[in-house]
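Hello,

Our lab assistant flagged a job as stuck in the queue for most of the afternoon. It eventually completed. Since we weren't sure the result was trustworthy after the delay, we are filing this so someone can double-check. Below is the sequence as submitted and the structure that was eventually returned. Let us know if re-running is recommended.
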Amino acid sequence: MPRGPRTTPEGGHLPVMLAEVLAALDPRPGQIAVDCTLGRGGHAVELLRHVGPEGKLVGFDLDPNNLEPSRERLSTVGSNFALHHGNFAAIASVLAVENSQADVVLADLGMSSMQVDDAGRGFSFARNGPLDMRMDPTRGRTAAELLATLPVGELAEAFREFGDEPQAEAIAAAIVAARKKSPPQTTHELANLIRQAAPAKIVHGPGQPTPRQQQIRPTARVFQALRILVNREMANLDALLRALPGCLKPGGRVAIISFHSGEDRRVKQAFRDGQRAGIYAEASEEPIRANDQERYSNPRSRSAKLRWARRV
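-- returned structure --
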């Protein structure tokens, strides 16, 4: 039976592929480290330890609820850090304020367990709550507002592009038909609509005589696609990838952990294009995956892919 996410002695969730991240970035004393996605500070704490009191950590997060817990954890290691509430698409502006370029940059593109576990945020179909899904709850349109207004074609395109959902058109049509009477307002209302539009398929797993239902996959894919759409995650990632070369010092390193095939394709292409243009001296040929032990103890790591690059 799969275990839940690993935790630290202080009760925080351990970051995905920490050892692999540190190996890829090789942070050293006196360097400037940037964590673009603080979460609750798991990666950031280790980066701060490695750069030491002579260095500095710059961190930011789109979710303002993550800043104070990160600040508390980082304060147990040192005081040489600066935290910003905002999108990593603005990394160049943040570093300009800090009057610095970065030696190492990390972006972990996944959601934090705390966000998923909070029913009020609307990220999980397993917990009933309002269809919000905004990483920054202080701005932007909610998932419910998008579902109530976007044309069927735009919804289907989002479910295909961001969720790889083969039944995107049927699900989008069901949502548009339902909203004429009552637009979905909660996660369970949306999940029920998806299950009706994309009925469960009965399949046999390899070597399994007992059939099992594969009904959760369309729901998971649509929820993922809707979250990406609400938060403009692909556009923000593209902006980060464009800005990175100008933010890294000569020889600086960047590592990005992705959880979606579309994210990974963008990172892979940007690093390869940068190599061809002479911007990056080297980049990972293949994505780095979590080892078997971590995949077993931390299910969130199973879909994670880590890619890195080094500035000339």
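-- support follow-up --
The delay was a queue issue, not a problem with the job. The result is valid. Residues 1-12 have pLDDT under 50 and may be disordered. The chain is about 45% helix and 15% strand.
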